[in-house]
Design brief:
single chain, 393 residues, alpha/beta, Ubiquitin-like (UB roll), two-stranded parallel ribbon, 13 helices, elongated, TPR_rpt, TPR-like_helical_dom_sf, TPR repeat
C-alpha cells in the first residue's frame, strides 16, 4: 500500500481563524459569559441593557416578536406559554401569560405613533376574514379565562376565580370546567348556596360528569357540617340567654341590686352565678374583693356564697403575711361596704352575704362585691377620711 510522503518535520499551513472567534479567544472566560448573557438564547439572568446602560437590541427585538401578527395569533402565543407554565404548576407565571393573552385580545386597533415609541401591544395589520378571526378570538378568550380561573383557584384567589368563571360562561354557557371551578371556589369561601347552584347547573348540562358529582358530595358534607355548627351555636346562645334570665330573676327575687359600667374590671372566669344555672332558687355566689385601705392591700375571693359569712372567709385568710403589727385578727377588725347613696354601712362579720346584699342599701357593681376591712383602732379615722373624700367629690 502506498504510504503518504513523509515530510521533513515542517508544519503545514493552517486556515486563518474567523475574526469573531479570534476576538472571543482573546477575551477572559468571565467576559465571554458576560457577553453571552446579553444574548436572549443564552441568558441566565435578565439583562435588558447592553451592559453599559443602553438598550439590549437583541432582547427588544425578541420581545417585539411576541406582538407580531393578528390579535388571535398574539393571544394564542401567550396562551400556549401559559399552558406550558400550568403543566409544571407555575401558577403565577401561567396567570401572567393568560393576562397578556386577554389584554392582547381586548387591545384596540390603532396606528402606532413613532414619537410614542413601541406600544405595549401592537397588532400588525393583515388581511383576515373578520368572522373567522372573531371566532378564533372567542375560542382563545374562553380558554384563557378558564385557565386563568384554574391559576386563581390554585393560588387561593377564590373571588378572582369566580369572576374568571363568570367571564367564561358569558362566552360559553356550556363550559363544564367553569361550573366546576366556580363551585370549588365558592365551597372554599363557604358560599354553599352558590356552590350548590354552580354544581347543579353543570350537572344539568352533563349529568354523568364524575368530578362535578364528587364535588356535589363534598358540598353536601360541608353543608351538613356548617348546619351542625350553626345549630350548636344557636343552642349555646339560647342556653346562655336562659341562664342570664334565670340569674336576673334570682337577683330580683332576693332584692339584690346590680349595676354595670364602662370600666368593668377583668375578672376572667369569676362571675355572679347560680349553683344550678337554670334554677333561680339554687345558691347564689359572688366574686368578692376584700380591701385593706389602711395598708393599700387586697384579697380576692372568687366564690363567696350568699349563705356564707365574712367570718368564714377571714378565718382562713388571717393572719395576713404583710401584717407585721398583727392588727388584722378576726376580733380586731370591722368591715364596711359603700352604699348606693355614696355612704358606708357596717357589715356584720356573722351576717350572711345574701342578707347584706338583700338589704337594698348597697349594690353589686360590675359583677363584683367590694368589702373594706380595717382595724377597729383605725376605723374612725378611716371613716372620716372617706367622708372628706366624698365631700370634695
Amino acid at each position: 500500500m502506498a504510504q503518504p510522503p513523509q515530510g521533513d518535520g515542517a508544519s503545514l499551513p493552517s486556515a486563518a481563524m474567523p475574526p469573531a472567534m479570534a476576538d472571543i479567544k482573546s477575551q477572559s472566560v468571565d467576559d465571554v459569559i458576560k457577553e453571552m448573557n446579553r444574548m436572549p438564547l443564552f441568558m441566565t439572568t435578565l439583562d435588558e441593557t447592553d451592559g453599559e446602560g443602553g438598550d439590549n437590541d437583541a432582547l427588544e427585538a425578541l420581545k417585539a416578536l411576541a406582538y407580531e401578527g393578528t390579535k388571535a395569533e398574539i393571544a394564542e402565543n401567550f396562551r400556549q406559554q401559559g399552558n406550558d407554565c400550568a403543566r409544571t404548576k407555575q401558577w403565577t407565571d401561567a396567570k401572567e401569560f393568560y393576562d397578556k393573552a386577554i389584554a392582547a385580545l381586548k387591545a384596540p386597533k390603532k396606528e402606532p405613533d413613532p414619537e410614542d415609541g413601541p406600544p405595549v401591544i401592537d397588532v400588525t395589520d393583515v388581511e383576515v376574514n373578520e368572522e373567522e378571526e372573531a371566532e378564533k378570538e372567542k375560542v382563545i378568550e374562553e380558554a384563557c379565562y378558564i385557565n386563568r380561573a384554574l391559576c386563581n383557584l390554585e393560588k387561593k384567589n377564590y373571588r378572582s376565580c369566580i369572576q374568571d368563571c363568570a367571564a367564561t360562561l358569558r362566552l360559553n354557557p356550556s363550559n363544564i370546567k367553569a361550573y366546576y371551578r366556580s363551585a370549588s371556589a365558592c365551597l372554599s369561601l363557604d358560599k354553599i348556596p352558590e356552590a350548590v347552584d354552580a354544581c347543579s347547573l353543570g350537572l344539568a348540562i352533563d349529568p354523568s360528569n364524575a368530578p362535578l358529582k364528587a364535588l356535589q358530595t363534598k358540598i353536601s358534607a360541608r353543608q351538613a357540617h356548617l348546619n351542625s355548627v350553626e345549630k350548636a351555636r344557636r343552642e349555646r346562645e339560647a342556653k346562655a340567654a336562659s341562664e342570664r334570665a334565670t340569674l336576673a330573676l334570682a337577683l330580683k327575687s332576693r332584692g339584690i341590686k346590680t349595676r354595670s359600667t364602662d370600666q368593668a374590671p377583668d375578672l376572667e372566669d369569676a362571675a355572679v352565678k347560680l349553683e344550678a344555672a337554670l334554677d333561680p332558687s339554687s345558691t347564689l355566689s359572688f366574686p368578692v374583693m376584700l380591701l385593706y385601705p389602711t395598708h393599700a392591700q387586697s384579697d380576692f375571693i372568687k366564690t363567696f356564697a350568699e349563705s356564707e359569712t365574712l367570718s368564714q372567709h377571714l378565718e382562713y385568710i388571717f393572719p395576713l403575711p404583710w401584717d407585721e403589727k398583727h392588727e388584722f385578727t378576726l376580733n380586731d377588725v370591722e368591715a364596711y361596704m359603700e352604699t348606693i347613696a355614696g355612704g358606708l354601712i357596717k357589715v356584720g362579720k356573722s351576717m350572711t352575704l345574701g342578707k347584706v346584699l338583700g338589704s337594698g342599701k348597697c349594690e353589686v357593681k360590675d359583677g363584683l362585691v367590694k368589702i373594706s376591712v380595717v382595724p377597729k383602732t383605725k376605723s374612725t379615722e378611716w371613716i372620716d377620711e372617706f367622708k372628706k373624700r366624698r365631700g370634695t367629690n
